[in-house]
Amino acid sequence: MNPLEEIAFLADVPLKIEVELDRKSMSLGEILQLSEGSVIRMTRSAGENIDILIGGTLAGSGEIVIIEETVGVRLTDFNIES
User: Fold this and answer.
1) How far apart are CA 59 and CA 81, in angstroms?
2) Residue 5: helix, strand or coil by DSSP?
3) Which backbone phi and psi does 23 adopt, to 5 degrees?
4) Which residues pair with residue 62 across a beta bridge?
5) Residue 62: closest CA among 20, 11, 16, 14
6) What pLDDT was estimated at residue 38?
7) Which of 26, 37, 51, 76 is most exposed, with the fewest beta carbons within 10 Å of its own?
8) Whether the predicted pLDDT of 82 surpasses 60
9) What is the pLDDT of residues 9-62, one digit of tens each?
10) 73 and 64 in contact (C-beta within 8 Å)?
11) Long-range contact list for 33-42, CB < 8 A, 24+ apart?
């Protein structure tokens, strides 16, 4: 039995995946002016590397991609230690 077959019973366990694109400090006044449809400009852009965390543990890295009008993450390195 290979390692994937040994843990197959865990396949449906939900895990929290975190991908942090950027952080920004804003004043309370700026936050109060936000409404649906507001755009917050960030310093990161497509092609930049980001960390991917699963359950708070670094599990890989990726790069920011934009496909049509959607922002996503392309996995460039993904390692789950067994």
Assistant:
1) 9
2) helix
3) -135, 150
4) 50, 75
5) 20
6) 93
7) 37
8) no
9) 888 889 898 888 888 899 999 999 999 999 888 888 888 889 998 888 889 999
10) yes
11) none
Confidence of residue 63 (pLDDT cuts 50, 70, 90): very high
Q: Is 60 helix (H, G, I), strand (E, B) or coil?
A: strand
In sequence order, what are the beta bridge partners of 18? Answer: 53
pLDDT of residue 30: 94
C-alpha to C-alpha distance for 47 and 81, rounded to whole angstroms: 26
Q: Residue 44: what pLDDT?
A: 81
**62 vs 55: CA distance, rounded Å:** 17
Q: Give ∠ CA 78-81-82 in degrees, rounded to 5.
A: 135
Beta sheet of 70-78, edge-to-edge order: 17-19, 49-54, 57-67, 70-78
